What does this fold into?
Amino acid sequence: MILTGELNRHPVHFFTDTGSTNDLALALSNTGADAGTLVVADSQSAGRGRLEGRAWLSPPGTGLYFSLILRPRLSPADFPKLTLAAGLALCKGLENHTRCQPGLKWPNDLFLHGKKCGGILTETQAVAGAGQTAVVIGIGLNVNTPPEAFAGELRAKATSLLAEIGVTYERGPLLAAILAELDLVVARLEQGDFPTILAEWRQRDIHAGLQVSWVNTQGRIVTGISLGPDEEGFLHIRDALGQVHSVISGDITLAQE
It folds into this structure.
């Protein structure tokens, strides 16, 4: 760790390199770190995605890798909504700061010009002896990552703000812009405003109305039209027979991918 301080009234722990900012944030939450504490790293050696075995490319000096500790005034049943809310905040922060128009892929990916540019990993942990549940929202965003950093099959699937917009951004102001939107959307969620948050999320849904595929709990590939997430945050897919499937988790792809 090389720096502690504040950003937008959030206590900040900054690391030049760490395994995972989410792991650090979860550990800090278990030792009494305040809600709103932010863990930021210049690079990660073990950044990970939502699904098991998925890694997140986190080279130094190019991206934003951070985790925010929350103790939200929400029912645990509403915690999955935080991922969608965070996705909306990430989009709006970028729209306001960069003027780009990113899209969202259910439940936790940010896309720009058809390629993945960012991701969200939300994790929970009961605080020892406190009877509370801490929620950590981790965000990885490819900011100034050069196109050549995406090797092999990643080149066709991943991108960065620099690669798509051709502009090098200072990461500090960009982080502040995203954090401000996160503060706003979490407050809205606590106030029961998820229907409006969901409506704004769906305006940015890159799969809305398209044929998508998903592997269900029986291991069968289901293909159908994406109807978007519902009021609980679960994705609905209507197959060729008209049956609507409710997807709680999983990897959704375009049917032709």
Notes: The first strand starts at residue 3 and ends at 7. The first helix runs from residue 21 to 29.
